[in-house]
Amino acid sequence: MDVSMFFCGTIAFMKWKPKSIINKSIKDTSLEPIIEQLLLQRGFYTKDDIEKFFNPNFDNDFHDPFLFKDMNTVVKRVALAYKNKESIGIFGDHDADGVCSATILAEGLEKRGCEVVVYIPDKMTEGHGINYAAINEFAKKGVTLMFSVDCGTSNVAEVAYANEKGINVIITDHHNAPEILPDAFAIINPRIKGNAYPFTELSGTAVAFKVLHAIYSRLFPLEIHQLKWFLDVVCVGTIADCMPLIGENRTLVKYGLIVLSKTRRIGYQELFIAGNIAISPQRMPTATLVAFHVAPRINAPGRMSHAKHAYHLLREISPHEARTKAMMIEKYNNDRKIITEKITREVDLIVKKEFTTKSCIIIAGENYPIGIVGIVAGRIAEKYKKPTGIFTKQELESRGSFRSVTGVHIVDMLTACGDLLIKFGGHEKAAGAIIRNDNFDAFCKNADAFVHKLLPHGLEVARYYDHEIQLADISEALLQKLTLFEPYGEANEEPIFLLRDVVLADVRVVGSGQLHVKIKVSNVKQDQMVDAIGFSLKKKCDAITDRNHVNIFCHVQKNSWQGRDTIQLHIIDIYGILDRNV
Question: Do 169 and 148 form a contact (C-beta atoms < 8 A)?
Fold first, then answer.
C-alpha cells in the first residue's frame, strides 16, 4: 500500500472542531499545559506512560517473538533446512511492505549461508497472494520450505497445492484472518486468534523481522546484534503500509529512522540522490518524509512495471548498478504521478455526476491501470468521505482496490458481499478484490446498502484541531517538546493548533504554479511575528476579506535553510473571521 494515497490533494473541510479538553492533570510531572493536554488526548495519563512514549527503548519495548504460538515450530524447521542445506523459497508481495518483507528475510537467511530463492509476483498479471505459478517455480528449483511474506493467510487452496508438491509452507502475514485457515506448516500472524503476542498492528515487514529475530536468537545468537541494520527496511515497510505508529511500531520506526539516516544500503543511498531526498547522517529523516518521498518510490515499480526492481535495488551492492536502478525507479515514480493525476481527474468527474447521493463509490474503467487504482481510491475516499473502490475492468472480471473512512471496516463490507466476489482481502481501511463483471452492478448495490446502514447520514465532513494557542506560546522550548511526539503517522498524527484572530503581515506567492504562499503571521500590535508557509492556499488567501483578522490552523515545525534552523508554521487551513467563524 502506498502511504501517499492518504495525504494527497487539497481537502476543503466543512468545519473545524476542537478535540475534547480532558480535565485531568498528570501526577508527578511538571509539564506545560499545552504538552500535558496533547498527552492526555493521546491516552497517556501517568508518568510511566509518558516516559515510555517519549523515550521508547528497543530492548524493553521489543516483544518476545516466541509469544507467537508457532514460532518455535518455525525455528526448528529452519534449523532442519539449514542443516540439510535445503533450498528455501520466499514469496513476497508487490507493494512496499511485501518488497521490504522479502528483502530482510532473504538477506537475513543468506547471510547465515542458507540457499534462498525469491519470487516477487507481477501485480498486473498475478494479483495478490500466493499463486500456483510461484509454487511450480519453487518446485522446479527444488524448494522444500517456502515462506510467504505479507500475504498467505487467505490462500487455503494454494497452500494445499504446495503441500501436494512436497513444499512446507510457513506463512508470515498481518492481514485479517478468515475463519478457515490454510493447512500451513506454521502461521505467524498477530491477528490470528490464540496468539499470546500483545501487539496486533505489526506490518508485514515487522512480522518478517520478528521471524528473523527468533531464528537468530536460537540459531545464530552471536550475530543477533547485526539485526539492527535491517531496521532501515522495517521502518519504510511499516510507514508505507500506514500502520499505526504506536506501541511496538513506534519503537521500530523511531530506531529505524536513525538507521535509515546511516544506511549501509547502496540502493537507498542512490535512491536518495536520484530523488533529491535529504537523508544523511547529518539529516535524520522524519516518518512524514519517508511517507511522502521514500515509500512511494519503493512502491512505484510494482505500480508501473514490476516490484522486483524495488527488491533488486534494496539488495544491490554495486554502486553503478544501484545508480542505474535508482534512476529507473525515479522515472517510474514520475510516470506514476502523471497517470495518477489524470485518472483521479477522470474519476472525480464521474463521482460528481453519478455518486452525490450514494453512500459508497465504486467505479470501474478499462483504462485504469491496476497499479494506481489504490492511490486514486484513497484520494477520492479522502475528498468525499465515502468508502471508495476503483477497479480495472478486464474482459470477464475486474480487479480493484478499496480505501475506507472512519466507521466502515472495508473487509466487513466485502465479507457481507462475499458471495458476489471471486477473491478479496486486506485491512480495516484498505483492501483488494476481484469480481466477475456480470456481478458488478449487484455488488455495487449491496455495498452501498451496507455502508448506508452504517452511516445513514453520511460521514460528517469535519476536521479536529488539538489545541488553541497564542503567538506568545510559540517558542524554541515548545518546538523541542513537540519533537518528542515524533515519529508522526497513523494513530499519532502531528498536533494541529488554532491561532485565532491573527494578522497576515505579509503574503508572498512561492513555488511553481502560483499555488503556494509564504506568510508572516503577527499579532495586532505586530510585536510578535513568525514565518509560515501554506501549500495550495493562495486562492484562500486571496479570498480573505480582512487580513488583519484571520484564524489559522497549523503545525509548529522547524525549518532548516542554508544551515540555519528557525520556527515555521505549516498552515493547513486559513479563514478570515469575517468570512468564516470557527
Answer: yes
Question: What is the rounded distance in angstroms from the CA atom of residue 106 to the CA atom of residue 89?
Answer: 9
Residues linked to residue 504 through DSSP beta bridges, in sequence order: 521
Taking 3-state DSSP, the helix, strand and coil percentages for the chain, each rounded to the nearest 5, stand at 45, 20, 35
| Three-state secondary structure of 25-83 | CCCCCCCCHHHHHHHHHCCCCCHHHHHHHHCCCHHHHCCCHHHCCCHHHHHHHHHHHHH
Beta-carbon neighbour count of residue 176 at 10 Å? 19
Pinpoint the alpha helices (H) of 56-112: 58-61, 71-84, 96-110
DSSP code per residue over 105-136: HHHHHHTTT-EEEEE---HHHH-SS--HHHHH
The answer to whether 426 and 406 have CB atoms below 8 angstroms apart is no
Cα atoms found within 13 Å of the Cα of residue 419, Cβ hemisphere only: 3
In DSSP terms, 558 is beta-bridged to 567
How many C-alpha atoms does 342 have within 13 Å on its Cβ side?
A: 10
Helix axes 132-140 and 156-164, enclosed angle (nearest 10): 20
What are the beta bridge partners of residue 421? 435
C-beta separation of 90 from 119 below 8 A: yes
What's the whole-model pTM score?
0.89
SS3 464: strand
Report residue 509 as a C-alpha cell.
Answer: 506567492
3-state secondary structure of 516: strand
Supply φ then ψ for residue 377, to 5 degrees: -60, -40
Cβ atoms of residues 99 and 310 within 8 Å: yes
Selection from 408, 418, 417, 415 nearest residue 381 by Cα: 408
Between helix 247-261 and helix 231-240 the angle, nearest 10°, is 120
CA 313 to chain centre: 20
pLDDT values of the chain reduced to their tens digit, one per residue, 582 residues? 443 333 333 334 458 999 988 888 888 788 899 999 999 999 999 999 999 999 998 888 899 999 999 999 999 999 999 999 999 999 999 999 999 999 999 999 999 999 999 999 998 888 889 999 999 999 999 999 999 999 999 999 999 999 999 999 999 999 988 889 999 999 999 999 888 999 999 999 999 999 999 999 999 999 999 999 999 999 999 999 989 999 999 999 999 999 999 999 999 999 999 999 999 999 999 999 999 999 999 999 999 999 999 999 999 999 999 999 999 999 999 999 999 999 999 999 999 999 999 999 999 999 999 999 999 999 999 999 999 999 999 999 999 999 999 899 999 999 999 999 998 888 888 999 999 999 999 999 999 999 999 998 887 777 899 999 999 999 999 999 999 999 999 889 999 999 999 999 889 999 877 889 999 999 887 788 999 999 989 999 998 989 999 999 999 999 877 778 889 999 999 999 877 555
CA–CA distance, 182 with 473 (Å, rounded to integer):
56
* Rounded Cα gap, residues 571 and 537, in angstroms: 9
Instruction: Return the half-sphere exposure (C-beta side, CA atoms, 13 A cut-off) of residue 79.
Output: 13
Cis before 369 (ω within 30):
no
Contact 170, 162 (CB under 8 A): no
Look up residue 188 and give its three cell numbers. Answer: 505467524
What angle separates helix 96-110 from helix 204-219, to the nearest 10 degrees? 10
